Amino acid sequence: MRIERARGTRDFLPAEMRKRREMEDLMRETAERWGYGEVRTPTFELAELFTLKSGEEVLKEMYEFRDKGGRHLALRPELTAPVVRMFVNELKMLPKPTKVYYFGNCFRYEEPQRARYREFWQFGAEIIGSDRPEAQAEIIALTSEILKSLGVSKEAELQVGQVGLLRGLLRGAGLEEGKINKVMRLLDKGKREEVAEVLSEAGEAGEKQELAGDLTHLTGLRGEEALKEARRIVLSESGSASGSASGSASGSALKELEELEELLRLLDFYEVRYTLNLGIARGLDYYTGMVFEIYEAGGRQGKLGAQSQICGGGSYQLAALFGGGEVASTGFAFGFDRLVEMFSPEKEGEDLRRSKVVVVPIRERTATVGGDRDGEVLKTAIKIASRLREFVPTYLDVMGRNVGAQMSYANSTAASFAVLVGREEVREGKVTLKNLETGEQESRSVRQAISLLSSSLSSPSRRNT
Predict the structure, then answer these.
(1) Based on the number of CB atoms within 10 Å of its own CB, is 454 exposed (0-12), middle (13-18) or buried (19 or more)?
(2) Whole-angstrom Cα distance, residue 77 to residue 87?
(3) CB contact set of 274 (below 8 Å; sequence gap of 6+)
(4) CA 416/CA 429 separation, integer angstroms
């Protein structure tokens, strides 16, 4: 009976895994160079970890279950909450900031579509202990550097927003937190026409209607235009506010605007290309300030189609939800599977012969090694293969095949060289080295053959070890 894989999951064949591992290595190396240490959390957690953050509704999108002890568990739908939980439990006494990165698979029960799966992978990083403009700028700059390391930075578009500024404006208008969260969710979904309705319900229809107009106009702008409009709105709100709580809230918006301006200045220092987009208005109330998103340039016309967002991040407060007190944090997560769609390895399309060798023991008959006069041939072939495997991928026959079948296999694996070892070669301390691209072959000592292959086929970094 044939059993299909579960819906929304994938099998990764060797060529695809080489590509994914190459990407992982580049991303890990970049994060390490920026001073981040890798962490890993469990694949399943207590379901409460995610409902505390996102509400009970999130259970509909999760793989959640009861274990044999009756505990309510869930396969992790993302990695930020588990990392913050780990910080609270294991790392909160360390000097701050704590700078970590992570890579792992996540699970969401949603409708599979192009570049969107039920099992998917995330690569992310967090600065736990700071949400200052310096930390925000570093996190954004790190994402830009990772994209450069993958060679896809020119295909990506970075948009930076500031939810703290929007929340400050709404507080300055006297809205209570429940209404603010509702407005933020509407702005996040692009339902700007409904914002006016929510604000008018809060009373003082004239003032609220004016604020609704300001917000919808502001969140529809980009770049310098958005920044100028934000300055105008914040300064007018601050000027009209009294010394009451409303005035304090307007002061909060002014502070957020100043921090945004400082962040943009720092991003210019990092030479990061970005667009200011104050329409990024996360509905989740633990986001406190800067937010950003990265999309594949070209939108629906690109490789990812409708699923064009490849990264999201921002400043947030989560530790307090998990018993860790108020700890300002800033981080991001890449949708790794979407990045894979954009990534083209340097060697992709080249002949893979350059990096494989097949050692071919020439046995006169297929038999077990014990008592077989070809035992020395196999022994020598194994020693040669073992030595070559220190430098280059090396295949050795494990099926007792004749020379013709082994050479056919060598060609099917796109190997670059075949090392033929027979009884005569063993007696003379030599091997026959055959170039499978040109067909040329020559007799070499074992030492010469190993030296030639290891120096010409191994990577520079491996050669230097």
Answers:
(1) middle
(2) 18
(3) 140, 158, 159, 160, 264, 267, 292
(4) 22
Distance of CA 209 to the CA centre of its chain: 41
> Which residue blocks in 9-78 are alpha helix, DSSP H?
14-33, 48-54
What's the token pair of residue 191? Answer: 């339902």
Cα–Cα distance, 76 to 375 (Å, whole number) = 53
Could you list the beta-strand ranges (E) of 297-416.
309-317, 328-335, 357-361, 394-396
**CB distance 62 to 109 below 8 Å:** yes
Q: What CATH topology corresponds to 14-41+76-342?
A: BirA Bifunctional Protein; domain 2 (3.30.930)
How far apart CA 432 and CA 421 sit, in angstroms, is 7
Q: Is the per-residue pLDDT at 370 higher than 60?
A: no
Question: Which are the contacts of 328, defined by CB distance < 8 A and separation ≥ 6?
Answer: 129, 130, 131, 132, 288, 315, 317
Q: How far apart are the first and last CA of the chain?
A: 49
302: CB partners within 8 A, 6+ apart: 155, 296, 308
* Residue 162 structure tokens: 């500031």
pLDDT confidence tier of residue 280, bands split at 50, 70 and 90: confident
pLDDT per residue over 229-244, tens digit each?
A: 888 888 876 655 555 4
The token pair at 131 is 């949400």
The whole-model pTM stands at 0.85
Q: For 138, how many CA atoms within 13 A lie in the half-sphere containing its CB?
A: 20
* Longest CA–CA separation in the chain, Å: 100
CB 210 within 8 Å of CB 218: no
The percent of residues in the chain predicted with pLDDT above 90, rounded, is 52
Domain boundaries, the chain: 14-41+76-342, 352-463
b/e per residue 293-305 (b: at least 16 CB within 10 A): bbbbeeeeebebe
3-state secondary structure 157-210: EEEEEEHHHHHHHHHHCCCCHHHHHHHHHHHHCCCHHHHHHHHHHCCCHHHHHH
CATH number, span 352-463: 3.40.50.800
